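step=encode ok
step=design start
structure_in=
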C-alpha cells in the first residue's frame, strides 16, 4: 500500500490517470517515498476495502520500527528495479516484475 500511495501521489502531481500512470518513473516514486511518504498516504484517497485501512495503519505506525521496515522494503525493491533498468525506468518498463511484489 505504501508503494501504491507513492505512485498515486506522483501520478496525481503529473495529472496522470488510467493507463498513463504506467509512465511514472520509479525514480520519482523513490523520491516520494524518501521525502514525503506520510503526505502520500494521507492523499491516497483509498476507500475502505481497497487499501484505506492499510493506509490508516501505516499512518498510525509512522515513526515506529514497523513503518521503517515497510518503508525500507519498498525502498530496496525500488532500488533493485532501478539498478536493473536504469535511472529512467518507468512502471511500464518493469510491469511484469512489479506484479510479483509481496510485502
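sequence_out=
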Amino acid at each position: 500500500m505504501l508503494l501504491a500511495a507513492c505512485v498515486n501521489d506522483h501520478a496525481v502531481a503529473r495529472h496522470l490517470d488510467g493507463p498513463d500512470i504506467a509512465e511514472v518513473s520509479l525514480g520519482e516514486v523513490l523520491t516520494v517515498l524518501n521525502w514525503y511518504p506520510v503526505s502520500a498516504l494521507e492523499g491516497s484517497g483509498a476507500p475502505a476495502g481497497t487499501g484505506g485501512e492499510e493506509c490508516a495503519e501505516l499512518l498510525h505506525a509512522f515513526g515506529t520500527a514497523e513503518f521503517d521496515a515497510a518503508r525500507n522494503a519498498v525502498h530496496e525493491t525500488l532500488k533493485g528495479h532501478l539498478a536493473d533498468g536504469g535511472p529512467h525506468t518507468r512502471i511500464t518498463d518493469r510491469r511484469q516484475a512489479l506484479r510479483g511484489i509481496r510485502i
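step=design ok
step=annotate ok -> Helices lie at 2-13, 26-35, 37-42, 52-61, 65-85, 95-98.
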